[in-house]
Amino acid sequence: MRRDKLITPEVANLLRPWFSGATVGAQPVIHDAPAVLEQPDHAVTLTWRVGSDDPHDIVIMGPRTQARYRLGQPGRDCLQLRFLPGRAVDFLGLPLRELADRAVAAADLDSTSLRTFVQAIAAGGSQVASQSHAARLRALTAALPDAPSAHSDRAALRRHIVAEATALLSIGDGVPRESVHRVARRLNVSERHLRTVFADGTGLTPSQFVRLDRVRAVLTRIQQKLPEVSTTAGYYDQSHMTAEFHRVMGVTPSAFTMRRWPTTEACTADRKPVGFSRRAGSG
């Protein structure tokens, strides 16, 4: 699990069956940014406003395939939990293929696991002033369901495919990224089946996941020399990186580092989430 200052090793272990990390507020990419940046993200996240006891302030955020730039300062801090690849399906009780670029009120989803966790968040909202974020997270872990079964049933097999494919399609420490074709062969499934299971488990196609993973790798290295960044991030060359970065971020890497951002939206903390098109089955 990726840890930050919110998470002690103990809390990381308690969250690990479901979540890979936690953050509070926007994470700046560069200093003196001209706007609030919502980074592209291949993860599904559970987000809520710190200090709120309103269940409708608890939102499931699908993968974000495009960067968003907002004028002004961000609103109240939000605490965000990132689901492990493939785990949001079990927690939310629905496939994720319709969730990309959408925000869904947690109260609108019919999942027992989610409902219990939402009630715990709302019940403790008024206590946040007397608790650190780390202490609040630790208290909330008591409301998490047990880890999903590791037995060889259909759901477990699909979780395994998503987790393994995500790891193989991601940038590793000096390990080349696998192609979708090679990932399917290694997992002993067809490419079509891999795409179906992957979309249900992450909300993205494998190709979309790779695109976002590469762009996120560039963002973490944006202050380095761009030719080196393009190689490290897994691009064919710098022109390939520039084109894909522009597609996702709306500007080229050079324009981004020079802070020529396409700010087009006013930042508001009260944006209503988009409703989901169908009810989920009980989880």
TrEMBL record:
Alphabetically list the UniProt keywords.
Answer: DNA-binding, Transcription, Transcription regulation
The protein depicted here goes by the name: AraC-like DNA-binding protein
Recall the GO molecular function terms of this protein's record: DNA-binding transcription factor activity; sequence-specific DNA binding
Does the record bear Protein biosynthesis in its keywords?
no
SUPFAM superfamilies from the xrefs?
Answer: Homeodomain-like
Q: Name one Pfam family in it.
A: HTH_18
Which Gene3D superfamilies does this UniProt record tie to the protein? Homeodomain-like
Q: Where is the HTH araC/xylS-type domain?
A: 179-259
Organism from which the protein derives: Actinoplanes lobatus
